[in-house]
Design brief:
The protein has 2 helices and no strands. The chain has about 150 residues and is mostly helical. Helix 1 packs antiparallel against helix 2. The longest helix has about 80 residues. This is DEUP1 protein.
């Protein structure tokens, strides 16, 4: 009987170790979640900065218009305005490409987060089921022990 208790105690310790590993994994997943949230916040800040960049681009376009008016009298100034326009266009194209890449990256991270949340829920569900099974087994063994003692 003592061997049975020893086995039961070992099994409980094993379940306890599993439970602790699950808790550690949940904690690690939560840490990852916080990092992802921080990354997302950084991305949102970048988008806000991009908005101000658009305003700066609009201001730059206004300045370009002023330069075009001055370019009528001086050909050299006209060439400089064209060079600035090309630069702005390339920057906008580069910016759009970077923005699309970031959107894709955020989408991938969100999908990964959802998968991890599903994994956590599955693990928690399994842990709960195992805990109930263990409780039932303990109750059965307690009843058997009580019968043997009687």
């Amino acid at each position: 009987m003592e061997a049975g208790f020893s086995d039961l105690r070992n099994e409980l310790q094993s379940w306890d170790a599993l439970w602790r590993r699950i808790q550690l994994e949940c904690q690690q997943l939560y840490t990852e979640f916080l990092k992802i949230r921080e990354y997302k916040d950084m991305q949102e800040n970048k988008i806000k900065h991009q908005s101000s960049c658009v305003q700066l681009n609009e201001q730059l376009e206004n300045k370009s218009t002023e330069l075009l008016l001055l370019a009528q009298s001086q050909e050299h100034q006209g060439e400089e305005v064209n060079r600035i326009r090309n630069y702005v266009y390339q920057e906008e194209q580069s910016h759009c490409s970077e923005q699309e890449r970031m959107k894709t990256e955020i989408s991938d991270l969100i999908e990964e987060l959802h998968q991890k949340e599903i994994t956590i829920a599955t693990i928690m569900e399994k842990a709960s089921l195992l805990e109930r099974q263990l409780k039932m087994e303990l109750e059965i063994k307690d009843k058997l022990l009580a019968k043997q003692q009687v």
